[in-house]
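PROTEIN DATA CARD
Card holder: Dibenzothiophene desulfurization enzyme C
Chain length: 420
Origin: Acinetobacter stercoris
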Amino acid sequence: MTVFKNFDFSNQEELSLGADIDLLKAKYFPVFEQIAQGALSREQNRELPFDEINKLKDSGFTAVRVPVKYGGEGASLPQLFELLTELAKADSNIVQALRGHFAFVEDRLNAHRDSSQKFWFDHFVAGEIVGNAWTEVGNVKIGDVATRLTRNIEGRWFVNGEKYYSTGSIFADWIDLYAFDDVNQQAVIVGVNRHENGVTILDDWDGFGQKTTGSGTLKLDNVHVHEQNIIPFDTRFKYQTAFYQEFHLATLTGIAQAAVATFSEEVRNRKRIFSHGNADLVRHDAQVLQVIGKASAQTYASEAVTQKVAASLQEAYLSHFANSDVIEQKANHASELESAQGQVVVSELVLDLTTKLFNALSASAASSAKSLDRFWRNARTVSSHNPLIYKEKVIGDWEVNQADLPFVWQIGASPQAKTA
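Structure generated from the sequence above:
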């Protein structure tokens, strides 16, 4: 809290300022270890981790950011992302599946400054989680929103539409839905009860990586929603894009840690050698050790960057309560810039190490039974969500021209493209 060390937050009990990290690790790391035991089987058989996510809900992990006053742990963002990195090491799919949940929690933590969010905090502490449904596919033009919120003559609200990349919604109790309010003519976030009539969720994500994140299609057919769960989009927490990106950084770092650990174990136990190698055992071959050593160093750098970005996000969170628009804008800009810089560096580090670790082994590393390719496939998929080339461009535009960073951006069909 370097920027805010001289601020007296009178409502500290309402904030998530941090917990004892050793106690958090002691509580949650054993759960992560249980989750890791079945990760390879789930990867190979494309088994969705319903039981594993339920373990996290039952343990209280999904409410770890909720302030202690309301039954959570009050963890800081650096603590959350340290835990998420360890969870990603166990199973990177699960971290991505919970991305929408923790973003909605973060939004409610920010909203709590101006109005009580006890309703949502109680649901989070009870183990209920939130899925994500923002993206529309097909011929929807960029800037348009086909998912619509309407109100009937009796004053009841209903939503209709279809989303893709609805990550985590298949596991969730609620859905963080982006829609357009036809009554008030504004973009909104709708908290949709996942169990309402008319909600259909398909497990039809066809990516070659991150296969078990539940990132398929969501269909909404005249689904009833409560007015108090309709939130104007312009009130969304300002550092949301940086927050979403930090999830990818933690996921990539966890993938890297798992890859180094797994390849190290393969090298340690390998009995076959090459006649032109450098040692009687592969585990003593200097060139092989060099491969592992470089990957370990790259992983260390990835973790350091991830934690640096997490610290900037905590500053952005606290700035919302500092009663200064100038301080808040500065903190949000810093977190957006650092997350973009982090994406460029961490993505390249992890993609490089998950490829070059194969130099420590031989053709047996291609065995489907071992699925060592999963580390690269998962990292490649995570790194593709936000195009690296555009991140590099906006960073450069800031450095050269001090151009504003795009805090919110969209994807959709080009107006110049044929839609027929």
